[in-house]
């Protein structure tokens, strides 16, 4: 591969394509389907496309929100949130919770989902989701560029303090990722795909 075979650009100067390839390249990305509660008791449920796991001990997950949104504000105020696994069966429900609605609108009801109270946090999980993580916030960090300039984005990190897993997806003591048919973000806005068991394969580490 030579220089003439490559499309090169510096992001600060634009990408020169029909669509910014950044999201499509960093794919797939798990969906951060986050439930939270504000100080007044209002519940929020929203999906975030920048989400992942970051640490084993303690188990830490995190999501990044462009602009200061209700989820981040709620989590800063209460210190708690829940992550819910988005699956193929729940794709339309998850998408419905992406709607921009007033702070006091219940996205669970809007999307036809059921709230189940948390065991260790005062935030409900999605009953229909096969996996949920109850979390206590560990850090909320405003992101910044290499030049130190603050970005309009906040990374919320939380320690997983309780885990709920549908037993149907545990075989011989091992959680079967593909059986849940999780959906993940792909490239352009609105692009998703489903992880299926037949598309998974195993590679043994050389060490």
What does this entry look like structurally?
The chain is mostly beta strands. The chain has a domain at 27-166: Electron Transport, Fmn-binding Protein, Chain A (Pnp Oxidase, Chain A, Roll), CATH 2.30.110. The chain is 11% helix and 37% strand. It is built from four helices and 14 strands. It has helices at 22-25, 70-78, 91-96, 107-110; strands at 29-30, 32-37, 43-48, 50-55, 60-66, 80-84, 115-116, 125-126, 131-144, 150-165, 170-171, 174-175, 183-185, 192-194. The chain has a seven-stranded antiparallel β-sheet, covered by helices on one side. The protein has a three-stranded antiparallel β-sheet with strand order 1-13-14, with no helix packed on it. A two-stranded antiparallel ribbon has the order 7-8. The protein is globular and about 55 Å long. The two termini are 31 Å apart. 28% of the residues are buried. The mean pLDDT is 92. It comes from Bradyrhizobium brasilense.
């Amino acid at each position: 591969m030579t220089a003439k075979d490559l499309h090169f650009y510096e992001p600060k100067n634009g990408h020169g394509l029909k669509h910014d390839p950044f999201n499509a390249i960093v794919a797939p990305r798990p969906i951060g389907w986050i439930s939270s509660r504000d100080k007044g008791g209002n519940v929020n449920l929203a999906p975030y496309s920048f989400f992942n796991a970051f640490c084993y001990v303690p188990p830490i997950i995190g999501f990044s929100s462009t602009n200061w949104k209700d989820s981040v504000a709620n989590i800063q105020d209460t210190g708690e949130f829940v992550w819910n696994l988005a699956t193929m069966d729940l794709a339309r429900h998850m998408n419905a919770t992406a709607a921009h609605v007033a702070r006091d609108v219940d996205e669970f009801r809007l999307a036809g989902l059921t709230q189940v109270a948390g065991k260790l946090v005062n935030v409900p999980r999605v009953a229909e989701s096969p996996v949920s993580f109850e979390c206590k916030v560990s850090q909320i960090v405003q992101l910044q560029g290499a030049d130190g300039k603050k970005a309009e984005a906040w990374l919320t990190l939380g320690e997983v303090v309780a885990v709920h897993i549908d037993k149907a997806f545990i075989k011989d003591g091992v959680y079967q990722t593909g059986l849940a048919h999780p959906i993940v973000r792909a490239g352009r806005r609105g692009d998703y795909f489903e992880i299926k068991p037949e598309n998974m394969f195993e590679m043994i580490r050389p060490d």
